[in-house]
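Q: What structure does this chain adopt?
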Amino acid sequence: MTGGSSGGPWFLSFNEGTGSGVQNSVNSFRYVFLGLLDPGWMFGPYFGADAQNLYNTAQAA
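A:
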């Protein structure tokens, strides 16, 4: 992927018909390994229980 893809969502169980799913990460960075840049590999943080709790707290506020 190229510049500008950062922040794009990663979904689990995404339903194209309804547009719903569980977001579990975002595009964050890619590695250059041994001088080779593979644009097919993006990395991002995993949204676990702490992120879910933060979301739930914000929704309840």
